[in-house]
Amino acid sequence: MVGNQEVIRRLAKYRNVMRKMKALGLVKVFSDNLADACGVSASLVRKDFSMFNITGNKRGGYRIDDVVARLNVLLGKDKKQKIVIIGCGKLGQALMNHNGFPRVGIRVVAAFDSDPRVLDAEAPIPIFHIKRIREFIDANKIKVAALTVPEPSAQSMVETLKKTCCSGVINFSPIVLKSDEDFLIHNINIEQEIENLFYNIHFAEIHSAKTDEK
Ligand SMILES: NC(=O)c1ccc[n+]([C@@H]2O[C@H](COP(=O)([O-])OP(=O)(O)OC[C@H]3O[C@@H](n4cnc5c(N)ncnc54)[C@H](O)[C@@H]3O)[C@@H](O)[C@H]2O)c1
């Protein structure tokens, strides 16, 4: 699964970079250029592409339109990507108002909360009571949910979602939730990311001080 996730991450990166190249008016791209833009080796690009029968030629490179179309199918970008948000507090509301989702084809179709004061079935993104979650997800064939509830509610929410057609969550609560074969969980811990950045800067500073001493 981990191996797959790395390949999928790279395919998504190739797609994003090629879409930007297309917007700049490019029609074809060589594996070397794509590799440079994605921070991988050209041989890895060729290996990834050949694994999915994406072909180009030595002299002309890859046709951007063809590759993006193939990547769209492989990544499911040719289908609607609908998500729901669970927990409409500060972070949930921020995600609901985020205007970057439509640009990449993701649509927030509804949100859910246990607090009756925040419910609003008439809002552009309706906010329903959490007790309606199972029915809504199955009726609307939702595959992904964003979890922005407090830590104590996160695990039980995953157990509820596993009983629906939902196949994965992006979890913003600090608890690390575990994926299994049928249900993928991406944990996003913002504090930890910031902490790691500080650690990396600290290590870089120590390393450069040592190099200066030499
Ligand atoms: N606010 C941030 O900047 C931020 C940043 C990173 C991570 N987080 C994490 O995201 C989560 C949400 O943070 P927040 O600041 O938005 O909190 P919040 O208290 O503002 O919002 C939480 C919302 O979840 C709802 N809720 C609680 N239990 C629920 C349940 N069982 N079902 C449905 N809804 C439920 C509450 O009614 C509330 O509206 C927390 O786990 C937090 O640690 C927040």
UniProtKB/TrEMBL annotation:
Segments of the chain annotated as binding DNA: 13-52
Keywords: Cytoplasm, DNA-binding, NAD, Repressor, Transcription, Transcription regulation
Domain named CoA-binding: residues: 76-176
Localization terms from the record: Cytoplasm
Keyword Nucleotide-binding attributed: no
Superkingdom in the source lineage: Bacteria
Sites where the protein binds NAD(+): G87, C88, G89, K90, L91, G92
InterPro entries named among the record's database cross-references: CoA-bd, NAD(P)-bd_dom_sf, Rex_DNA-bd_C_dom, Tscrpt_rep_Rex, WH-like_DNA-bd_sf, WH_DNA-bd_sf
Gene3D superfamilies: NAD(P)-binding Rossmann-like Domain, Winged helix-like DNA-binding domain superfamily/Winged helix DNA-binding domain
Purpose of the protein: Modulates transcription in response to changes in cellular NADH/NAD(+) redox state.
PANTHER family for this protein: REDOX-SENSING TRANSCRIPTIONAL REPRESSOR REX (PTHR35786), REDOX-SENSING TRANSCRIPTIONAL REPRESSOR REX 1 (PTHR35786:SF1)
Assembly: Homodimer.
Name of the protein in its database record: Redox-sensing transcriptional repressor Rex
